[in-house]
Specification:
The complex is a heterodimer of chains A (302) and B (185). With 302 residues, chain A is mostly helical. Chain A has ten helices and four strands, in the order ααβαβββααααααα. In chain A, β3 and β4 form a beta hairpin. Chain A starts with a helix and ends with a helix. Chain B contains six helices and no strands. The radius of gyration of chain B is 24 Å and the shape is rod-shaped. The chains are: A mainly alpha (302), B mainly alpha (185).
Chain lengths: 302, 185
């Protein structure tokens, strides 16, 4: 189990590194293509920085509010509170705040920038369908996200991906305008070489946002496997989470009102918007979560 | 400055930095072990507090199980008075077994099982039992890490110089994931 966690960590580092390189490559392409200097790059990075700080400080409250999560007292949900408190002791972190979401689909998420400011939210459907051992599996998974500061990693990657999209949009627009004004190629004698550089830069800029999204989603998917493994290490009982995932998989057709693209990567399992959602292979590439059968298989191998 | 002097100074510097890092790690682990022990203590105390309540509630429905009540109550006082870790662990095991029997007895009394107060106590007890198990798990993990660091080279040198000793594991029966639940699917 320790080896699996270690290799998951390595892959996550590689993916984040890939994201950084992508931002660098796009910046470089902009430098090649955009003669008017680094102004656009600076603006894009500034916006990305503001977005990061904003989501770092207030992201948890926004997410909880958008899911219509309600804080519950220990007297109201003694079982949930006991499970959360027990597993936080096992993880050696302060007990997160506990929320319940009025949704029928069994699901859960954790949020907060660090273990001292964290919250766990579960749906009413989850509380109804899970027994104690399964609930411990789910809460263990969410606490693993808290311990690993995954929400922070998610923010960093989402912001990097966002910066790539922003920069290439910026370039595309300014390039159109420059093209209309007919500045290009008038007093530069590069000819063929310049055209090739231009073409490479253009392809890079078109592909960059797509790559950025794929990186973002695969970080999220790696994180899910890692959290499964670590959650199982907290409860010392992988079948608990496996059984919970089986139940969640069986209920995957139940739609969630709170589901949207911006928060999909936070949930225990990707929420579906439509009745009886089923995914194709292309969709799988762009999905934030690994297929539930694969997660169950890995848990059973532990 | 001759080359060999530079090399020697470099080695001394690296050794110093490594020593400081190991020392800090040892302090962090020792604090976590202490914190883990405090957590176990909090949860065990919580269980001591629950026992009289539970005994009273069950007594109201099953007064003739006197021996069982006495066993649990006696084990409780022994655990509270215990000095050594080993003695306490033994008494805690008796509490765990006694409580399990108590809850098993309760199964035979439908009115008791429907009692609101009993249900709340049962949830509290289950929650506390699992918190004891998790606190013990955390404590033993940290003890294992500390003892590994103290036992392995070169950190054992730093540990000996600053007087870090290995700690004792806390071995009690697992109340939640004992043999009764192995067959769960």
């Amino acid at each position: 189990m320790y080896e699996q966690i270690a290799s998951n960590r390595r892959r996550t580092v590689l993916l984040i590194l890939g994201a950084f390189l992508l931002v660098g490559a796009v910046g470089y392409a902009l430098g090649l293509l955009w003669a008017s200097g680094p102004a656009g790059l600076v603006i894009a990075l500034a916006i990305a920085a503001v977005m990061t700080i904003g989501s770092y400080r207030y992201g948890d409250r926004v997410v909880l509010a958008s899911a219509r999560a309600r804080a519950v007292a220990p007297e109201e949900q003694p079982r949930l509170h006991n499970v959360v408190e027990g597993l936080s002791i096992a993880a050696g972190i302060p007990k997160p705040r506990v929320y319940v979401i009025p949704e029928r689909a069994p699901n859960a998420f954790a949020t907060g920038r660090n273990p001292e400011h964290s919250s766990i939210a579960v749906t009413e459907g989850l509380l109804e369908t899970m027994n104690r051992v399964e609930l411990e599996g789910v809460v263990g998974h969410e606490l693993a996200h808290v311990v690993d500061r995954d929400i922070l990693v998610g923010t960093v990657v989402a912001t990097l991906a966002g910066a790539v999209v922003l920069m290439s949009e910026f370039f595309m627009r300014s390039w159109w305008w420059d093209g209309f004004r007919g500045r290009r190629g008038s007093n530069r004698g590069g000819g063929g070489a310049e055209a090739i550089v231009f073409a490479i830069g253009l392809v890079l800029l078109i592909l960059a946002p797509i790559f950025a999204q794929i990186i973002r989603f695969s970080v999220s998917r790696q994180r899910e496997y890692l959290a499964d493994a670590q959650g199982a290490m907290l409860t010392r009982y992988p079948p608990g989470l496996a059984s919970a995932l089986r139940k969640i998989g069986a209920a995957s057709g139940v739609p969630m009102r709170a589901a949207n693209n911006a928060t999909a990567h936070l949930w225990l399992n990707q929420p579906s918007r439509l009745e009886g959602d089923r995914m194709g292979s292309l969709e799988r590439l762009f999905s934030t979560h690994p297929p539930i059968e694969e997660r169950i298989r890995r848990l059973e191998e532990m | 400055m001759p080359v060999w002097l530079g090399i020697v100074l470099g080695i001394v510097l690296v050794a110093l930095v490594a020593g400081v890092l190991v020392f800090n790690r040892l302090v962090a682990l020792r604090n976590r072990v202490d914190n883990g022990w405090a957590q176990i203590d909090v949860q065990l105390r919580r269980r001591y507090d629950l026992i009289p309540n539970l005994v009273e509630t069950v007594k109201g429905y099953a007064a003739h199980e006197r021996e069982l009540f006495e066993n649990v109550t006696a084990a409780r006082s022994r655990a509270i008075d215990a000095g050594a870790v080993g003695d306490q662990a033994q008494a805690e095991n008796q509490i765990t077994r006694g409580l399990r029997q108590l809850l098993a007895v309760a199964e035979a009394y439908p009115e008791l099982k429907a009692n609101e107060n009993f249900l709340a106590l049962q949830e509290e007890l289950t929650g506390t039992e699992s918190k004891i198990a998790y606190a013990r798990q955390f404590y033993n993990d940290q003890v294992m890490r500390l003892n590994t660091l103290i036992g392995s080279f070169p950190s054992n040198v730093v540990a000996r110089v600053f007087g870090f000793g290995p700690r004792e594991f806390f071995d009690i029966e697992d109340p939640v994931r004992g043999p009764a639940e192995v067959g769960f699917r």
